[in-house]
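Example record for the data management plan.
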Amino acid sequence: MKNAKSARQIDPPSIPLDQLKTTTFKSLAERLYERLRIEDCELQGFAGADSRFESSILARVDLSGSKLKRTRMLDVRIEKSNLSNAEWNRANFRRVEIVGTRATGLALQSAELRDVTLKACRSDFLRINTSKLVGVRFEQCRLTEADFSDTAMTRVAFAGCDLTNVDFTRAGIVSVDLSGSTIEGLKLAPGQLRGLTIDMAQALQVVALLGATIT
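Corresponding structural encoding:
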């Protein structure tokens, strides 16, 4: 049973679509990007720090292999982009949607995510370590071998996701909903069960994961 706190709606980005200026970039030299629709950028391997994106959309942007420190995103939508193997340490996301985006190997270490949704993303080997997640939803995402170790997780939901071999080791699980997702090989400890919501089909799998013999 889900309590009222875990079921609270995630706030979507507030983006003034009629005020956006469409543009493209060859680098991210500015500190602030505001009220923009940033399209078709080739920024593979770009390195930078302290960039801020506010009330904007990033569409078909290739940031694979980028190394961005202390990136802040507020009221942002990322769609049909490539974030594979990017390292965005100490990122801060608030009211962000990431949709139809490749995020294989994306590292968001020591990050804070609040009111964030990832939908239909390929996110194998995603690394969100030593981070804080509050009001985060993964929907129809492939998250095989993802690593959430040592991360505080409150009101986090995985809906229709592939969580094969996902690592929740030492994660602080307050309210995490796994219902409807594949959980084979999930790594977690008995003390973390209290904060989980699972469906009936997953119950026997969880018992087996914890080493119990089912007869």
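Summary line stored alongside the record: The chain is about 5% helix and 35% strand.
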